[in-house]
Amino acid sequence: MTAGPTTRAVLSAGSNVGDRLAHLTTVVRRFADELVAVSRVYATPPWGGVDQDDFYNVTLLVEGPHTPDEWLSIGAELEQAADRTREVRWGPRTLDVDVITVSMAGTVVLSDDLRLQLPHPRAAQRAFVLVPWAEIDPEATLWTPDGVRPVTELIAALAPEEVAGVVPVADLPAVRSA
Ligand SMILES: Nc1ncnc2c1ncn2[C@@H]1O[C@H](COP(=O)(O)OP(=O)(O)OP(=O)(O)O)[C@@H](O)[C@H]1O
Ligand SMILES: Nc1nc2c(c(=O)[nH]1)N=C(CO)CN2
User: Fold this and answer.
1) What's the pTM value of the predicted model, to 2 decimals?
2) Sign of the C-alpha dihedral computed for residues 160, 161, 164 and 169 taken in this order
3) Which reaction does it catalyse (predicted)?
């Protein structure tokens, strides 16, 4: 089997049910071979208006011979392994893995397929995605319908109290032995 072209993806993982750190650790372990960088773990107030417990979130940069669909389906497998159920939109979950953006040979992949919208259409409004992303890639940019924007500029455009609520709380355990 020949490997496909290398793609680079930004993934966001979140959890607010059960052992939040353990759930996020499964994501970093699964992507150990493709991992370019992973942020610290951030405690984040729930986004989206549903009254629920705070989340823990991380953002990962991964690179490997995977199509955008493959990054999504690996994330879905991890959600299933965490016994993720879909009850309330933007509601509580053991584990959520979102594909924020994918690039191939330096070109951003655009998709309006509802099964995989790229870049993620709500990423620019989410401090819980952008703040950890800027930590691991301060020069990062995000394609939006209004143009390509530095992630730091998108953060500056959010409500200050929303950004201030996104607070680093832990490092995930190292995934590789030396
Ligand atoms: N970029 C993307 N990343 C992850 N899932 C996506 C993406 N684009 C579309 N989807 C689709 O969204 C569906 C619902 O995902 P999910 O239940 O995680 O939504 P949500 O986390 O509640 O809301 P949001 O999409 O706003 O993060 C998934 O089945 C998936 O096919
Ligand atoms: N802080 C935070 N809020 C959320 C999150 C998340 O990961 N973090 N995921 C959601 C599911 O769409 C809805 N709201």
Assistant:
1) 0.96
2) negative
3) 6-hydroxymethyl-7,8-dihydropterin + ATP = (7,8-dihydropterin-6-yl)methyl diphosphate + AMP + H(+)
